[in-house]
Prior knowledge:
By secondary structure, the chain is mainly beta. It contains seven helices and 33 strands. The protein has helices spanning 40-53, 136-141, 226-232, 317-328, 351-354, 372-375, 406-409; strands at 10-12, 25-30, 73-79, 84-91, 98-100, 129-130, 156-160, 166-183, 186-203, 215-218, 239-244, 251-255, 257-260, 264-267, 276-277, 279-284, 287-288, 304-306, 313-315, 336-339, 342-346, 358-362, 366-370, 376-380, 383-386, 388-390, 402-404, 412-417, 422-427, 433-437, 444-448, 450-451, 465-471. The chain has a six-stranded mixed β-barrel. The longest helix is centred in the N-terminal third of the chain and has 14 residues, at 40-53. It is globular, with a radius of gyration of 22 Å.
Amino acid sequence: MGPRRRLLSLLFFFSFAPFARATGVFPVRHKYLHHKRPIADLRSHDVRRHGRILSAVDLPIGGVGLPTDTGLYFAEIGIGTPPKTYYVQVDTGSDILWVNCVTCTRCPKKSDLGIELTLYDPKGSHSGSLVSCNENFCTSTYGGEIEGCSPNNPCQYSVMYGDGSSTAGYFVTDVVEYNQVSGNHRTTPANASVSFGCGAQQSGDLGSSSEALDGILGFGQSNSSMISQLAAAGRVRKVFAHCLDTVKGGGIFALGNVVEPKVKTTPLIPNMPHYNVNLRAIEVAGAFLRLPTDLFENGDKKGTIIDSGTTLSYLPEAAYKPLLNAIFSYQPNLSFRTIQDFLCFRYSGSVDDGFPDIVFHFENSLSLNVYPHDYLFQNEDDVYCVGWQNGGMQSKDGKDMFLLGDLALSNKLVLYDLENQVIGWTEHNCSSSIQIKDDKTGAIFTVDAHNISSAHRLEVGMSILLLLIIMICYLSC
């Protein structure tokens, strides 16, 4: 679903904490692994996501396929005392954690994913409390004191997303439970006090029962995000990384100081609401594309968006056409056809042997290698379709957009260092492990990718693999 409020998504205030220690692990599951679906669902997933993370950008799906509403990965967490289980989408662009509240008027009652939905009740938790409009969390979220606020008034929120859906409610503080990394391949239970949204009203897709979840776990850059709260309390580094394995599924989603593998970085463009970096050039099989020098910067949409929550990759037409011409110059005799608006062709050999590698070159000499099996996906036997999308076919707001999604970022460890405002990646076996340093003790722990077998009690009819979100404490535990 990816409802990132990154550009024109709006957070409104209508009415008018201390934090516990927190390091830990969340199990995260892939929605589509080993589950055959129409290729139109790839585009419908992206258009729903872009409608929210890019708001004014329109990436139409061409009227085919059913839209997907929950994004690719969701985690299981515990909230409250005694704790109850909630399933929340993991979203690096959302700025808050929020879950559907017991007073919700349009929250989904069931999910087609086969999971049991739970409504959060602040009164049902011994540790839950309302956040008033004069508390620091509220005033910092809204940039100052709230006019007309009194200590008994709740801190309310309303988020309007670009596709017309919305969530509204009020902020609460309660205990969030997860697992703390305590050694090599080992975790122990942990919890933290976190302020989050209690969703009282949902509209649009957020109110739909189709593939519904209990809420969203945001890992955005805002001070209201969960990682920002924990970092401000000195419990975690404001650094996270993910490694998504599209071959075997699963991977790792980690918070902490990743020391192995080593990752080279490039600066994030300042004052951008999402993760934008400066793309310098595109290389195909050793030859650089001849592109306009100003193509990589376009007004307010500076740079290239790195978004692991988007399935495909999007380029302006001025880059898309030269790129495809260079790629298919290696196979001039192919016959193309359109399948649900995707450019497809029949090919019986290995795409890695028959098509060129692509290299994206970024500021600070960081490169991103994209191989044929990354940008060409198999639709049926001997039929492949192109994962690059032409921004020129989109609305005026999307036609000049560079965005690299899962098909380009898969099988790489991607590191987001918000402390130093850099992002980077390196090729890595995402089914193996990484090493994270505990900055307090200097210990280095090995963290593995995991999976949930088909016999797991939360199986939703397919083999779903597990990712880990690891928080390593660096001051106190």
